[in-house]
Every structure is written in structure tokens, then in C-alpha cells.
Fold these 2 entries.
Entry 1:
Amino acid sequence: MKLAVYAKPGQVGLVESEKPQIEDSQDAIIRIVRTCVCGSDLWRYRDETMQPGTRNSGHEAIGIVEEVGSDITTVKPGDFVIAPFTHGCGNCDACRAGFDGTCDHHIGDNWSGGVQAEYIRFQYANWALVKIPGQPSDYSEGMLKSLLALADVMPTGYHAARVANVKPGDKVVVIGDGAVGQCAVIAARMLGASQIIMMSRHADRQALALEFGATAIVAERGAEGIAKVREILGGGADAALECVGTEASIDQALGVLHNGGRIGYVGVPHYDKHSLGSTFAQNITIGGGAASVTTYNKQVLLKAVLDGAINPGKVFTTSYPLEEIDQAYQDMDQRKSIKSLLILE
Ligand SMILES: [Zn+2]
Ligand SMILES: [Zn+2]
């Protein structure tokens, strides 16, 4: 089968690889129908220290179950499924508390990667997979995009809003205009925020955020951006949803909140500062981490997509066959695409 690997920093290519096999009674083999490039894949793609031939870090897919292990009772070969990147076991303390993104059984390679490929071995398939009614051919391309968004970016944006406890009437600021930030706008609206400010400097991303429910855009950054937000809101925000993962974006989140405000952060941290005590004087509540993908899909998000209540698939602004994966990465890296979709036949 074909598998994407990082050929060298800034270049992705396909290699022939062994088709994965069932190795555990809770595994499923899935034939990928749609996958994509994640903002987090770009960190690996750009990494100058990366070893040539490293397996892709892609982790978002929908597909058809091809084979299941002996303990799988929830899906069967032929079923159409969302493959959440989180692989929650469904039984540990974290999963039972609704935090399958940080399942206690995440060890070794039991964490998504390598799904930019024709087939994957999916661990903890019995609980973690989310069954989609019908078959891919029953859905429009737009609906397939929204279903794929449920493998990561939509639940991740939703997680930011949930852990920040966004509630009706809240004033919310979203930091990060990539696919996750866009989905955080959708989530803030779902949870009843009355004002949603997207911080963005790019016209295409500003337009999408407004379509998803943002009520204002702030293009300025730093102290200027904070002042602009406070001017629009007539004070500080109730919640800041941080969807980037840099120190500057965390500072932005802290700066826009009123004392007693809440941060939900889902940008994978690329900083090591900000000790816990640094927010004491502001009484800030901070939550964040990997999203509860399976939990949210089963509770609310799959139904919202199937009902047409939300359309997160609009974050996919360009599509490519798997063979053109290098272009898919390049276009996202150069911001020609908000999120690149990969189509497998
Ligand atoms: Zn992702
Ligand atoms: Zn678990």
C-alpha cells in the first residue's frame, strides 16, 4: 500500500509499505477514504532535524472498516467510520471522565500517526471508532469534509470552548485563525456565546470566521490587539480560546481576559514558560489539552453535522489526490490553503 513519509525537511513523498495487520484483539484495519494535513503536521514537516523517511504524523481520517480483532463488537467490516486521533480505550479513569484525548493507556505508538496512507491499524477500535450511518457514496463531498473534520479539528475547537466553560451570553475571543480556531468559533456559537472575536490578519480566514459566527475581527496583535478587543467588548472577555500553541498566543489570551476569566487552550504548546503562579493575580481559570474526540462526537458533534446544524468541512479549502500530498503540504505551509484535504478512491 501507499504510505506518506517525510522525504526531507519541507518535502513529503509516498513509499510502498506493508499493509498493516491486526495485532491486538481490539484493533481494526481501516481503508482510508479521506484524510488531510493538520497544522500540527507542519511542525514535523518543517523540522530540520527530522530523519528522512520518517512516517507521516497525519492523524485525521474517515474510512471503511476492512477487518476487526476478536474483541470488537461495535463495528464490523464494511462499516463507515470516523477514526479519531485520540484512540481512547473507553475504560480508564480519564476516558470515563470524558477525557479520551488523554486516555491513561496512551503508551508507545498507541497514538495516531501515519494515517496519510491507504490503510491504517486503529487501536482501541471497539470504543474509540465512531460509526457513521450509511456509506461514503450516500454523502456529498461537502458532508464528507465535515465528517472528516470530526476526526480532530472540530472536536479540538469544541474542547477549547468546553474546558473554558463557554456559556450563553459569554464574550469569547478566539486566538488562531487556522482550522482549529475556525472550529472554536463554531463551538463558541453552539455554546451560546453572544460575542465572538476572531483574531486574524488574513482575509480568507476572516471571512470564514464571520461565516461560522464570529461577530468581529481583530487584525492587530500584541498590546494593540488587546486594546482593540477591550474596545469592542467594552472590557475584558469572559473566555479566550487559544488555538496556536506559542508563547505570544498565550500572552494574547491572558491579555484579553477580565480578572476571573477563563482560558481553553488546545494549541500544542511550543513554549516552556508561564508557570502556574503567573496567573494568580488575575484569578484565571486554565484548562486544555488533547480533545475528547470520541466523547464529543458521540455526545453532540456527529449529530450536529448530520443535521446540517454545523458545517466545519468548510475549513478544507483545497483538495488533492493522495499522490499530490507534497503539494497539499506546501499549499498549507504557504497559507494558500486553510486546510488541505486528501482524497483516496
Ligand atoms: Zn490534527
Ligand atoms: Zn482510556
Entry 2:
Amino acid sequence: MADLRINLAGIKSPNPFWLASAPPTNSGYQVQRAFEAGWGGAVWKTLGDPILNVSSRFAAVSFNGQRVAGFNNIELITDRPLEVNLKEIYETKKKFPDHAIIASLMVEPKQEKWHEIVKRVEDVGVDGLELNFGCPHGMAERGMGAASGQVPDLVEKQTYWAKEVAKTPVIVKLTPNITDITVTAEAAVRGGADAVSMINTINSLAGVDINSWNTIPHVAGKGAHGGYCGPAVKPIALNMVAECARSPHINVPISGMGGVSNWQEAVEFMLMGATGVQVCTAAMHHGFRIVEDMLDGLNNYLDERGIAKVSDLVGKAVPKYSDWGNLDLNYKVVARIDPNTCINCNKCHISCEDTSHQCIDMLKDSSGKPYLQVREEDCVGCNLCSIVCPVDGAISMVEVASEQPPMTWNERQAALAMTSAQKLDV
Ligand SMILES: Cc1cc2nc3c(=O)[nH]c(=O)nc-3n(C[C@H](O)[C@H](O)[C@H](O)COP(=O)(O)O)c2cc1C
């Protein structure tokens, strides 16, 4: 069995699966049950000045029969008194000394407020702190959460204030509601962050009821933007993790989250630079026991590949992620249709004909039976036909030899610049 332990900036955990700061980590009762189920760590539901919540606060987007393809909420931070949370954190840590308990914190952007809360939570034995600069609603309107997290100076300053007194590692949780997450990640690093985590939720409105014209969800007929998470946000989160992982200025560990629902997605995040993952929506949808499959799947994956430690996965795919200008312009794939598997539904023909490069012909064989064939010389390898094809294996994208040597856009531009410089010399 592979070694699943991780060490994220000094925070040790028996495995890379943590529950994210959210409803699943709202109380000692829940976190203890989660640890019993197999979760390696938990980021406690954000502590701060307890707030009032509204009733009716979640909504989900179901897509083509998949329930909770995306999840939207207008919930705020903890609504339980700090003393109660601290007592339960203390008790939980006592019972589970080897599991990671991280306190998520959000206070007003004032030095004394950060000093006070950091000292109070560290007194009860947390393994680390996560500064919540990400919640997009409610708290942001009071200058906290994403409102702080969108201003690099405030991220840096508040991280610095927390670090002034913190004895445990400080993770800074970033908001995705920003153009370039590396800017705020760098600010966190400048402030002394020991790690960064991402993503918090994305500004969203789940829907509008077309009969009542109310927003979904609504509170007595009024709505407000919420935060989006769950499977739909995974590609956005994965890119943000990867962008931070490949930045030479963000040389701290990353705790990745956003749409992680199974072990395969956890592996993707780790390959793209996350030391471990956090999960919220999938646990809310399916319960704590999903971690059993995650642990089994990850163990098998590592064993099958002879990888001794899960930490050996971290960042392995990062060198493969680059700028568009470094992609080989002469690399070519084309679509090939397997006539024995194809059911002649024509979906590929229609999408290619209407919206791509018109290179799938509808032909008939000698007996008059219809079949579809790609004119490879006209195929640009966009993948659309294989994406819309409903039958696995009916269309494959195959690599074809290029007549040209590899050449990236950047190399091409450099070569052109060199040629014009030479012409000028002459
Ligand atoms: C109902 C709900 C409440 C949340 N509350 C918090 C919170 O208090 N603090 C925080 O940092 N993130 C909070 N989050 C965000 C999650 O921790 C996580 O960043 C986000 O949901 C992405 O992960 P997921 O796609 O696995 O859900 C909340 C998310 C949900 C759905």
C-alpha cells in the first residue's frame, strides 16, 4: 500500500483528502464523524464574529439528469458562537491528534482583530490557519472575504498581520472572482503565507423561476448573488491551481479545491501542483462515506503504477502546462470514424457541417448502406465530432505525421524577427 500521508507547509495529515470549510465542518460532531469515515483533515467552517443567516440559501443546477452539476449558496460564515466552536475544536483535536484541523478565519481588515483571533484559535490546538479572503457574498459587503481578497494590498497586509502572531502554518484561501489569481497569490506570498488554497466560490445566480420571476433561491421574493461550486467549477479551479503552480513567484504549497468529487479528480489536482485537496459539494451531495472510494481508488492507482508515496504525484503534470505560444503549430490530429461502431446518428456530420470545417462526408457503400467518413486533408483536428459522438470508440482522434518539424508560435515569431533583422543588416 502506498504512503498516503501529506505534509502541507508543516500541516501533517494521514491522507490528502480534507473537508473544505463549509457546512460539513460546522461542528465537532460532524468533523469527528468525518474523521471516523476516513477524511484526513478538516478546515473548520469559517470563524469570526458569528452572523445571522437567511433561510433558503442553497440552489443547484441539474443538467441533463445529473443532479447538482453545480451548487450555489448564499450562506455566510459560522453562525455559532466562537467559544462553542473553540471548545469543539479542542475536543476534536484531543480525540484525533493525528488528523489535521485547520481553523478558517475571517475578521475585519484590522491588525488587532487578526492578532486576537489567531491567538484564540491557536490556544485550542489547531494544526494550521486558513485565512478566508474568498467568500463572495454577505461578508464581502462588510469589507471581508472576497472584498479583501480582490485587493492584493489587503491580502498581503492581512496575511502579514496573521503571520505576526501565528505559530502554526498560515494558508491563504483565494477568491476566483478576480482576473488573474496569481496576482493575489503572489500578494499572499509577499505577506508571508506558508501556503495558498483555492478556489472559494464563483459569483453566481443559479436561475430565475420563469413563472414567479423570483430568483433561485429567493428570500421572501428577493435574491442576491451567491457562490458557485461543485462539478461545474472544476475546470476553472484546476486552471487556477495550475497557474499558481507554474508561477515561479508562488513557491509555496497549494491546497486545491473546486469540484473535486472522486479520487481521479484529486489526482488531477495533485498532478497540477496541489499537495492535497479539499472537498465540500460532493460531501454535501453524497455524505462523508465518499472518502472510502477516494482512498481505495487512490491507493490502487498508486500501487498499479508502483508509486510509493502520494506526494510523488505533486506537480508532475505542471511542466506540461504552458502558454499557447509554446504549443507546436505543426502537430496534427485528425478524426477517424470506425464504421463498425458508428451508429450513423449523424451528430458528428451535423456539428462539423454547421459549426466546424465541413469535412465529414455522408457516403453510401456498394449495397447502398450509408456511412460517414472524414476527409482527413480538410480536418483541423478540433475534436468537436468526437465530443458530440454518443458512442464510445466510434470516433477517435489520431495523431498523423507532420511534414513540418515542430514549430511554436514563439519560435516562429523569433525566426521572423531574425529574418527581418538580417534583411536590415544587408
Ligand atoms: C454552503 C457553502 C458554504 C460555504 N462556506 C464557506 C465558509 O464558511 N468558508 C470558506 O472558506 N468557504 C466556504 N465555502 C466554500 C468551500 O469551502 C469551497 O471553497 C467551495 O465550495 C469549492 O469546493 P467544492 O466545489 O468541493 O464545493 C462554502 C461552500 C458552500 C457550498
